[in-house]
Write a structure and sequence with these properties.
heterodimer, A: 388 residues, alpha/beta, Arginase, Chain A, seven-stranded parallel beta sheet, 7 strands, 9% strand, globular, B: 216 residues, alpha+beta, CBS-domain, Alpha-Beta Plaits, 2 domains, two-stranded antiparallel ribbon
């Protein structure tokens, strides 16, 4: 089966970052790729590079004035323009201005579009682009470290090239996939599913079960907000109750998954309590569902993940292993540990999987699981009638 | 901002006192409303709800129902004591009235004439807009000290961290303390939380991240 999976990546994609001290750091991609490499998971594979997305593609989901602002910001910002740019979320502590911003952002969009092209053309069965997953980018606003919405633009391109195509977007980042949701909120051909920490407690604050789409698209936006401190057990059982049933009812032609791994207990920006077990489970199941429902057509992207030494490399190695039908070895490779150990503020993990004993369930785990189960049932009752 | 006129509905469905129950219920259905002001010579003489009319008529399926609906007049079932507000009234005043008078709807009167209607759902809408619930943001709860400058000092921390405040709610003292709830336009409140705590303001949400994170 190997050879039919693609990793879309080139070095230029690693330039999307905001410098030291900013939580969004492309070092996490480097750490992941080298971990996969040292584990031998790239044997027989070569990376597929990508061109930056065209302006036309960006404009399929972003406004012209916004794209102009991003282009302008990347060339330098004058004081008198900064107020206007800030109205678009550009130049804030979350979304700082760095040189070449537009080019780096457009390149990521182009890479995710290349991943979908490979899969739709049959050149690859599954494709992964770790740089993608910038799901908070809005039509006219940068938000939550995201300037251009790669999944949004890739879906828009698919819809243009293959009218009538049904795309399922599945987002398991700890934060609500708001940007992608709003872009297709009234579109019954694009199903967006987002499981995330409840907006009552976490950015961006949206993603309640009552956000279900609008007009023709009513029922095609599916949101499952999880309680803070939700652990693997409850996460996985909610996923299993919700995702297969909703995807089956929708009958997608392609699954596009956003694989943020910031719901891990160690992540500094969120309050969920997952471990590597969740991040092995999800891509394996998405892989199987893609084979059951849409001929295996599956494009995966990265997303959030801010403990980039201990969590992201292992979570996304598990993701690549699912995409490439490989098994993750038990131990982290010695080469990787000796090369990167001591470079960060924490010790690198010696094992590829977290030990359950290191992550005891939180005190209220039964109440948390009950609440999540009730939310899942209520959600299914509300959306399934629209999808069937 | 936050006045009745900003949240009221301007096009109001009304009735005359002589309208029949059947006519009134038809208006409720078509306009999808539950309350109808009753006007006589341009002046409000009462208000009637779909519930008033339903409880006055025989149940669905009762053979007498159709005749009763044609026979009953609104004037006999409306409430004559109508609580109203004015367009320039603050919305919290309207909310307080609704609660105290136990009504779900207030006709809005300007210079003696009906100018609009405000429902409890309109008030909720104003609240949702006020807290910026549709804008991306992180919720941050800060315990304020009793010092009168506490709120401005806390806001100053936001300014220094260059984080935009989407909304602030800070009520009077409650349960022996005062809490301000901010909606901040950031996915990363860590720096802010650290500075607030360093300035002596305990942050009730979000919690501090697990130790040893990779904040460099």
């Amino acid at each position: 089966m190997s050879g039919r999976s693609a990793m879309v990546h080139d070095r230029a994609l690693e330039s999307y970052g905001f410098g030291e001290g900013h939580p969004f750091n492309p070092l996490r991609i480097r750490l992941t790729l080298e971990l996969c490499e040292d584990l031998g998971l790239f044997e027989g594979y070569s990376f597929t590079g990508a061109e930056p997305a065209s302006e036309e593609d960006l404009l399929s989901v972003h406004s012209l004035s916004y794209v102009r602002c991003v282009q302008e910001a990347g060339r330098g910002v004058t004081a008198e323009r900064s107020v206007e740019l800030e109205r678009h979320g550009i130049g804030t502590p979350d979304n700082p201005v760095v040189p070449g911003l537009h080019e780096a952002g457009a390149h990521i969009v182009g890479a995710v579009m290349e991943a979908t092209r490979l899969v739709m053309s049959g050149e690859a069965e599954h494709a992964l682009c770790l740089s993608g997953g910038l799901h908070h980018a809005m039509r006219s606003r940068a938000s939550g470290f995201c300037f251009y919405n790669d999944a949004g633009a890739a879906i828009a391109r698919l819809k243009k090239e293959q009218p009538g195509i049904r795309v399922a977007y599945l987002d398991t980042d700890a934060h609500h996939g708001d940007g992608v949701q709003w872009m297709f909120y009234d579109d019954p051909e694009v199903l967006t599913i987002s499981m995330h920490e409840s907006g009552r407690y976490l950015f961006p604050g949206t993603g309640g079960i009552e956000e279900r789409g609008r007009g023709e698209g009513l029922g095609y936006s599916v949101n499952l907000p999880l309680e803070p401190f939700t652990g693997d057990e409850s996460w996985i059982s909610c996923f299993e109750e919700l995702v297969p049933e909703v995807l089956r009812a929708f009958e997608p032609d392609l699954i596009l998954s956003q694989n943020g791994c910031d719901g891990h207990a160690l992540d500094p920006l969120t309050h969920l309590s997952a471990t590597t077990r969740l991040y092995e489970h999800i891509p394996r199941r998405v892989h199987d569902l893609a084979h059951d429902l849409c001929g295996g057509r599956w494009v995966a992207t990265g997303g959030g993940g801010y403990d980039f030494w201990r969590v992201v490399p292992r979570a996304w190695t598990a993701l690549w292993a699912a995409v490439s039908h490989a098994k993750v070895p038990e131990k982290a490779p010695a080469d990787w540990i000796s090369r990167w150990g001591g470079m960060g503020p924490v010790d690198l993990p010696l094992l590829m999987q977290d030990l359950a004993a290191d992550y005891l369930p939180p005190a209220r785990h039964r109440q948390i699981a009950d609440k999540n189960r009730r939310t899942t049932h209520e959600l299914l009752e509300k959306v399934l009638p629209h999808l069937e | 901002m936050l006045l009745v006129k900003d949240s009221m509905t301007r096009e109001v469905a009304t009735l005359t006192p002589e309208a029949t129950a059947a006519e009134a219920l038809a208006v409720c259905r078509e306009r999808r409303v539950r309350h109808l002001p009753v006007l006589e010579g341009g002046e409000i003489v009462g208000i009637v709800s779909d519930r008033d009319l339903r409880s006055a008529t025989p149940a669905l399926g009762d053979p007498d129902r159709a005749a009763a609906l044609e026979r009953l007049r609104v004037v006999d079932y409306m409430s004559r004591e109508v609580t109203t507000v004015e367009p320039e009234d603050p919305i919290e005043q309207a909310a307080k009235l609704m609660r105290e008078e136990r009504v779900g709807c207030l006709p809005v009167v300007e210079a003696g004439e009906l100018a609009g209607i405000l429902t409890s759902s309109d008030v909720m809408g104003a609240l949702v807009g006020l807290v910026g619930a549709y804008e991306p943001g992180s919720r941050i709860e800060v315990a304020l000290s009793e010092h009168p400058d506490a709120l401005s000092e806390v806001v100053e921390v936001f300014r220094k961290e260059a984080v935009k405040v989407v909304s602030i709610l800070a009520g009077p003292e409650h349960d022996g303390g005062r809490v301000a709830v901010f909606r901040a336009e950031t996915i990363n409140p860590l720096g802010l939380v650290e500075r607030l705590e360093a300035a002596g303001y305990p942050v009730l949400w979000p919690p501090r991240p697990p130790g040893g994170g990779d904040r460099s």
